[in-house]
Amino acid sequence: MVEFAIAALVLTVLPLGMVMLGGFHDLQFRTIQAARYAVFDALWWRERRSAGDAQEVLRERLFDEALWKDPWADADLLDPRQAVTLAAAHTVPPGRGAAITNFIMQPLSAMSGFLGGNFDLETLGFRSARIHVAVNDIAGMPAPLNALGLAFDEEAAILGDAWNASAPAHVIRRVSGLVPTTLAAQPRALLAPVTSAIALIEPAFAQLCWGVIDPEIVPVDRLAPGQGRLRATEVLSC
After folding, report:
1. Contact in structure between 33 and 81 (CB atoms under 8 Å)
2. 3-state secondary structure 2-58
3. Which of 9, 93, 210, 227 is most solvent-facing, going by the fewest CB within 10 Å?
4. What's the burial of 86, exposed, middle or buried (CB within 10 Å: 0-12/13-18/19+)?
5. Cα(135)–Cα(152) distance, rounded to whole angstroms?
């Protein structure tokens, strides 16, 4: 009789436990997804979005659903407004990453300063996000399942710089510090007589544009078949 009672208890609790574990696994996967979403979202928005707004958007996008219930579907496993928190950081790369970044950036920064450009690649490019999700205890489950104090903590990190540009002029301004020929852009008008003379011998020399950066030229091999090759006079104008 005792054996039957124990077996009946196990067979009753086991399905409930499987349902509960399924909900916990789903919450863990959602927490991992939230960490990845948060770090890419921070890279995109940068300082244009406050930490409080980022946390609220994260809650609404990934946790503001009544999907996670207890085995009887009576109580929620979490309250997104209280249980989900986001901790984001924006720092230099950890460990040897900072030294490698400085090693790469120093000559580029020196070149940019010498040429007078605006090469402003960010050195504080390491962004991380940590998501903490506290799960409510399930009062109807037998001990010790009714007081697990369960919480999920997941982290994600990314090293990079979006280096966005608002327009072609912005692209030119940012890369000009790494293009030595931009030094010849100012005296270009003074070279016009020499250019015209040389063009009498070599006509293609007339299309030589000293210091010009055009980010909107489409390479010929990317043009659709049938459009033909564009001549230099059609794709670039000083």
Report:
1. no
2. HHHHHHHHHHHHHHHHHHHHHHHHHHHHHHHHHHHHHHHHHHHHHHHCCHHHHHHHH
3. 227
4. buried
5. 8
What's the CA gap between 15 and 97, in Å, rounded? 48
Distance CA 123, CA 105 (A): 8
- List pLDDT tens digits, range 143-191: 776 777 888 999 999 887 767 777 888 888 777 777 777 766 666 666 7
Query: Is the confidence at residue 135, as pLDDT, over 50?
Result: yes
d(CA 75, CA 73): 6
Statement: the pTM of the whole predicted model exceeds 0.85: no
Distance CA 50, CA 41 (A): 12
Give the H/E segment covering residue 175. helix 168-175
* CA separation for the pair 112, 12 (Å, rounded): 71
- Our CA dihedral for 26, 32, 35, 40, rounded to 10 degrees, sits at -110
| Closest alpha carbon to 184 in 161, 166, 211 | 211
Query: In Å, how far from its chain's centre is CA 113?
Result: 28
157 HSE (CA, 13 A, CB side): 13
Strands 151-159 and 126-134: antiparallel
Q: Which helix (H) or strand (E) holds 159?
A: strand 151-159
